[in-house]
Structures are given as C-alpha cells and as structure tokens.
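Subject: Sanity check before I submit

Could someone independently write out the structure tokens for this chain? I want to compare against mine line by line before I put it in a report. The sequence has 166 residues.
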Amino acid sequence: RHTPTEIIDLLNAYFERMSEIVFDYDGTLDKFIGDALMALWGAPIATENDRLNATLAAVRMQQAMREFNVEAEAIVGEGIGVGIGIDSGMVVAGMMGSSKTMNYTVIGSHVNRSARLCSAAGAGEICVSQPIWDAVQDRVHGIPLEPLTLKGIAKPVSVYKITEEK
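---
Independent answer below. Compare away.
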C-alpha cells in the first residue's frame, strides 16, 4: 500500500526513536531485522540493573510508539503497533560471522525465547518471562498470562504482560 520511500522514511524514524531509548537505558543495539530491532542488556558487561533497564526501556518504547504514531499517520496515513518480548539467561556473546564480515551478537536458547515472546506479544504489549518478572515486579505493574507453549521450547513458559511502570 505504500511506496518504498514512505516505508524507508517510516522505518528510519521508528528505528531512530527506539534506538535512542535502548541507549538511554544502557542497552546495546544488536541489529535491525526487517522492521524489528534486537537489543540486549548484560553483554558485553553485565550489571545488576540489566533486567530492570530492559523492562523500563520496553515501557518507554510503548509510550514512544503512541507518540510516534502521530508522525506515522503523516508519513503513511496510519499508525503501527509493536510487540516486545524479554527473557533473561546465559547466552553466548561475541563476534560471529565469516572471514569477511563479523558482527557482535548473542545466540542461545534465551535469545530464542525472547524472539518467541516477542511474536506472542500483541501490538502495544510487553511479554516477559518469569526471571524478568521476578526481577522487576516491584517496579512495574503486570498481569500473569496463561503459560505459553513456544516453538522450539519443550516446557510451557510462564509469561507476564507488563502494563506500566509503578
């Protein structure tokens, strides 16, 4: 429905806002994947605030999306919705790629769980796993959801939907 130029303008404006929020909350922008972005906390250096910072960044991102959609209406005539998924755990971090192109990234089951939680989150939602909820429940409001069976993950995953910062 939209021209390539409109989509590029929309995505660049969206990525600009979301990237700044990642950096404001001490995150690392890993990569852009189509119309999504992957951010991480705790690599290359972990802190005790990583889970909270990731969650507060997600809350701020959803707030920013409401503001951004005013701009999106002007660019493409409609707003967009974003779902966010957050998990926590041990991952492998480092330079990966080929002899000609290397990028710093993370891989592992918790990266996959985050992606699956993101896919499960509807527009405007933030879905987090139990380890995230345990670390942030005193700082945000959330509601438990039914455990989700996620592709590639043997056991159902306890999930909470974050609604706002306390």
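---
OP: Matches mine. For the report I'm noting this point. The chain has four helices and eight strands.
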